[in-house]
Amino acid sequence: MLEEGGAVILFVLLASTIFSALYWIFALTCVARYVRHRPRRSARSAPVSGPVSVLKPLCGDDGHLYENLRTFCRQDHARFEILCGVRDGADPAAAVVERLMREFPQVELRLIVDDRSIGTNRKVSNLANLLRHAKHETLVIADADVNVDRHCITAITAALENPTVGLVTCLYRAVASSRVSSRLAAMFVNEWFFPSALAGAHLEELRHAFGAMIACRRDTVEAIGGFAAVADHLADDYMIGRLVHRLGLRIVLSPYLVDTVIADASPRALALHELRWARTFRTVRPVSYAGSLLTFGIPVSLAWFVVSGGSALAGGAVVAHVLLRGLGRLVIARALGPQVRMRDVWLVPLRDVLSCVIALTSFCGRTVRWDDQKLYVRSDGRVAPRWEIST
Fold first, then answer.
1. Model-level pTM?
2. What is the layout of strands, in order, in the sheet containing 373-377?
3. 3-state secondary structure (DSSP) of residue 381
4. pLDDT single digits (tens) 338-349
């Protein structure tokens, strides 16, 4: 009986190893197609869009906020305003915004201080407060860590001129510092999220949004019930996309690629951030999340090697997966540019094992940390303060 059980485990690990290899070949093919078919951006060829309100919910300063916000102040778009929101006037982000207001007096840049809460998700409350001050019908929502070029606003809002389009979302690439934890965080974005998002977009119609930057119309936000509809959801960007899709409107993946700047986080902060993401993804897309466990080819093949007692076939599979991921970096580097540093190829096995451990850990609870909040993720994706659950 034990021998039969061992045979089943070996078969499962073998099948998982093969599946992972096939997945990565498909995902990297999607990346290569993205490189070939992605249109070149040009300020002169881009259509002229109407006035835009950029909503920037802020909390703290990670050391990159000034440079990130500055890129929005230097947009070539004909008419736009930037609304930056904080809950407290003493927030370090407020001083950064005030500095930029002095540096760019010609830009319609405003600081909104408002601690009104409409739900557990503070970022969504911040957005709801900013929306009350927005002048224009076209909205761009961008995270604090986003860094863009001059043509960003025009590029991502152009698709909204089609009335069947309800929301535009963007893929993003991560820019890391020299710190190993920062480089590992960037590798997760560039070498796992980016290819998996492209693979998903090839397999099914896009029904959700990616949170770094989205564009939509004000009437679309109102039609889904306003930001209050996602005020208790941890994956607010995902749910906004789902609700827009339910209206019968299309979600478009823009060819525009934004940069997210990775702060010099500690290994612990890195693990907590990715655990929050993993538990969120596990809740909102349980089937896809379960399937993603089979994409960690290096740890899966390593497990096969150990369970098989060091068989030559399993050892060859480990080597094949390491080579596949190493070659994959060349494909991804072509798509994302110098942000994917080839000298970090030695980190690929460590990154894959770390991702696998975090994914497995995500099944061991529903608590996440977000800034200074400890939150409990309910089965429907909504969150509540941890103390409410324990009382």
1. 0.90
2. 367-370, 373-377, 383-385
3. coil
4. 878 778 889 999
